[in-house]
Give the backbone structure.
Amino acid sequence: MPKSRLRGEAATIHRTLGRNVQELREAAGMSQERLAKLCGLSRSYLSLIEGARVNVTLGAVVRIARVFDVEAIDLLTTYNC
């Protein structure tokens, strides 16, 4: 889904998720490819998540959270790495 189609509160949550995933990934010294492999996701899908350009599934959020040993809700709200 193009970024312009995500609006309002949903867009804010998507941006927060993308920022949190990117910050956690970079803090762990991990590439998108490595994180995607650990989560069982494609690198391109992970890139779309980080860029807030996709309506991400809850399953994907949970998979990412497990890799970083955080609660899924923490990825969807303001998170301080």
Notes: Helices lie at 8-27, 32-39, 43-50, 58-68, 72-76. The mean pLDDT is 90. The chain is about 65% helix and 0% strand.
